[in-house]
Design goal:
By secondary structure, the protein is α/β, with parallel strands linked by helices. Helix content is 51%, strand content 11%. It has a five-stranded parallel sheet, with helices on both faces. Helix 10 (195-204) packs antiparallel against helix 11.
Length: 220
């Protein structure tokens, strides 16, 4: 599914003022997927590190603040290649790793040639120890549930998206566009805009599976 935040990520990649990125958002909104997709499209390779799955990686940040040594240890431990400006480094599930978040200060100051993006739940990042947070040394970006435009694109309704983008005056919408937009908007509300539930609807038109997926997310 196409996410419009990809353009913002590309702007970040090309910015001369780029700092390590922290991508915020609620759980299951697609943070990990969007970063991996961004790396696949715009970098030669992606080095992905999940600090929940591999808690031993946290030790590399606790023993030194030398970013070159940290990256060398990560490469040796994981077997992943990291090349400045050609590799997107993804640090995932960083909300419980204050040392990892704090290291962004040193990446910003001493190793700006590396492109680093961190992902974590909004609540977890907010609860990180304030004394360790690298104020002014990171860029923030927020990923939200899918917009109505993204829902239409995922549903294969590019023509409706083009129509909406062409409207620049307040006037009645012709029935040929109003009726399908009205029905799509109702279904968009039902899915909640969450990628998993949208996928259930757009792929199989399975309302019960879609509602079950959304209920699971809300329950968790």
């Amino acid at each position: 599914m196409e996410r419009l935040i990809l353009q913002k990520l590309l702007d970040w990649k090309n910015s001369p003022y780029r700092k390590p990125l922290i991508l915020k958002g609620v759980r299951q909104v697609g943070k990990t997927w969007i970063l991996k997709e961004f790396g696949r499209r715009y970098y030669e390779n992606t080095a992905y590190f999940n600090f929940d799955e591999s808690e031993e990686y946290k030790q590399f940040f606790e023993t030194t603040k030398d970013v070159d040594r940290i990256l060398q240890n990560l490469m040796l431990a994981s077997g992943q290649k990291i090349v400045p400006e050609k590799t997107l480094i993804i640090f995932d599930e960083v909300q419980d790793c204050p040392k990892v978040i704090n290291s962004m200060k040193y990446f910003c100051e001493n190793a700006s040639k590396y492109h680093i993006a961190c992902a974590g739940s909004l609540l977890g990042i907010a609860l990180a120890k304030p004394s360790s947070f690298p104020v002014g040394k990171v860029n923030f970006m927020q990923i939200d549930p899918m917009t109505f435009t993204e829902f239409l694109l995922a549903n294969g309704d590019e023509n409706l998206v083009q129509y909406l983008e062409s409207v620049d005056t307040i006037e009645p919408i012709p029935d040929a566009f109003f009726n399908p937009l009205y029905e799509k908007l109702k279904m968009y509300y039902v899915t909640g805009g969450m990628p998993e539930s949208v996928l259930m609807w757009t792929e199989a038109r399975d309302v019960s599976a879609m509602q079950e997926a959304l209920s699971g997310i809300l329950g968790a």
